[in-house]
Design goal:
Strand order of the largest sheet: 5-15-16-17-18
Radius of gyration: 22 Å
CATH topology of the largest domain: TIM Barrel
Shape: globular
CATH architecture of the largest domain: Alpha-Beta Barrel
CATH class of the largest domain: Alpha Beta
Distance between the termini: 14 Å
Bound molecules: zinc ion
Number of strands: 18
Number of domains: 2
Helix content: 25-40%
Length: 484
Amino acid sequence: MKHARSLPPANAASAATPATAPPPTTTIWAADALLPAGWARDVELTWDPQGRLTDVRTGASPAAGQARAVGPLIPGMPNLHSHAFQRGFCGLTEYRAQAADSFWSWRDLMYRCASRIDPAQVEAIATWLYVEMLEAGYTSVCEFHYLHHDPQGQPYAPRPDMAMAILRAAQRTGMGLTLLPVLYQTGGFGGAAPHAGQRRFLHGTDAMLRLLGTLKPLCDAQGARLGLAPHSLRAVPPDTLTEALAGLDALDPTAPIHIHIAEQTKEVDDCIAWSGLPPVRWLLEHAQVGPRWCLVHATHMTPEETLDAARSGAVAGLCPTTEANLGDGFFDMAHWREGGGLWGIGSDSHATVNAAEELQWLEYGLRLTTRQRNVMADPAQPHVATAMTLAAVAGGAQASGRPVGGLQPGAQADFIELDPTHVALAGLPARDMLSAHVFGSHRTSAIANAWVAGQARVRDGRHALRDTAAAAFVDVRRTLVTDA
Ligand code: ZN
C-alpha cells in the first residue's frame, strides 16, 4: 500500500468530536490545581466559547452538576520543538553504522527517509504523533517544518501541500499549533552549496516570504500561530537572515522566530572558522535577539554567551531526550538560570514523546553532572517537578507565541487531569502526584484527561483517533521501510 489508510474528514475543527457529543463544558472544578503561583485548593476554571479562560477562582465549592476533575489539574505543556516526520523512523537508527557514530551519521539516515516521504504520509505520521503528544501531556506544538518540496526539490503547487499536511494533522487531533516554516539555503557556513539531500528544504528569500503570506490566513483560520525558523547559521547567510526577518516583521511584527543554534561542537568550530565568533555570540551581535526568539539546542556556549543570551529574553529550547539520543552534549543550565533565562522543552526527533520524561531527563542530567539532587527546584517551589512544570510551561508559551502560559485568565483552557488511580500516584497529595508522574511513573502515562482550548481531546487516557491514526502510521512506516 502506498498511502495511509484514510482518516476521518479534516474539514472541521470538531472532527475528533462525535456528532452526539453533549454541549461543550465551559467550567470545571478541581480539588487541586497547579496555578502559575503554585498549587491551589478548590479551584474553578471557567472559559469562553473560544476556549479562553475567563476566570480562575480558588476556594470555590463545586456546583451541582458541574464537571469535576478526576485528579489534580496541571497546565498543558507546550512542546516547543518538533520535526513531525522524524517520528516515522524512530528505532531505525539505533545501530552502529561506522566506528564513531554521531549526529552527522544520524543525519544521513534521516535525509534518506526525508527524500522519499510524500504529503499524505507526513499527514499520517503527524496525526499519530499529535495523538501521542496529547496523551502524553503536550497540548500545543511548535512545528519546525523544513520538508517543503517534492523529492526532486520542486515546490508543490498551487498549494504548499506539506505545510497543509501539518495544519490538517493539528486540526484533526485538536493540537494547538505554531507553524514555523524553515528557511534553508546553504549547506554550510560561508555560502557552501547545499547538497542533493537538502533539496526538499530550500527556498529563496522571496519564495519563503510568499509562502508565509500564503500560510498566514490558513493558520489564522484554525487558531494556529505562524512564525519563521531560520534553520541555523550554517543554512542561512547573514543577508538572507536580515531580509527574511524584515519580511516577517512586515507580516507580523510579533511572530515567533526559532533557530537551531549550537547543537554540535563541529557547528561551533565551523562558525568560529567562518566568522571568528561562536554561533550564539554571532547571533547576539547580528540580530535583535529578544523575547520573540527561541534558541533551540543552545548546547555549546561559553559562560559569557550563556549569560548574555539568557539576559536577551530569548527562550532556550531544550530537547533532553533527543539531545541524549544524538549525543549532542548537555546544556549549561547553571549560567542560564544565573542570567534569569527562560526555557522550555521539545520532543524534536520524537525518540521520546512524553512531557514528563523530558523534565525527568533534564533534571537527571543535572543531577549526574552536578552530583546534587533537586537541582531545578527554586526557593518558591522546592518540589522540583512543580518548579520545572511551571517554568517549562511559561517558557514554552513564550516560544510558541500563543496564550498557553498556564491556568490564568486570558490563557487558553489547556490542561491535564492527572490520573489519581494510577498506582504510582494513588493516595498521594497533589504535588506529590505530580512528582510521581514525572519521576515515578516509568514509561506509563498517569494522565486521565487532556483539554485543549476547553475541549476534552483525551478521555480516560485515550484520544478518539488513537486506533485509526496508529493504523495509518504503521502502514506508512511499513511503506517507508519497504521502499528503503
Ligand atoms: Zn530540530
